[in-house]
Design a protein that fits this description.
single chain; 101 residues; mainly alpha; 4 helices
């Protein structure tokens, strides 16, 4: 009976002792899916940004008195930039994961 009590106590102590390792394992699981997540969010953001930018430039027209700085921080430009960065990040993760060293 004494061994069961010690075994139960060790289980609790071991889970508290290796809490940082379990966090690292959770981070590895998230990192495995990060590449796919970058592509899932990056490609639609980039395509929505491109389509809305084309619509703004060719259908509604670009206003004459609109500063270039506002154009750089417009929602279309930010969607393109964020989507492109996510695609580049997903590609670099994919290339690093499957490169032959």
């Amino acid at each position: 009976m004494d061994k069961k009590a010690i075994k139960q106590d060790n289980t609790v102590i071991m889970s508290d002792k290796y809490l940082s390792e379990s966090g690292a394992q959770g981070g590895k699981i998230i990192a495995e899916k990060l590449e796919l997540g970058c592509f899932i969010f990056g490609i639609p953001l980039f395509s929505i940004g491109i389509f809305s930018l084309i619509y703004m430039l060719f259908v509604t027209g670009f206003t004459d008195n609109w500063p270039v700085l506002l154009f750089l921080f417009s929602p279309q430009s930010l969607a393109i930039i964020i989507g492109l960065l996510l695609i580049i990040g997903g590609y670099s993760i994919h290339r690093t994961k499957y490169s032959k060293n």
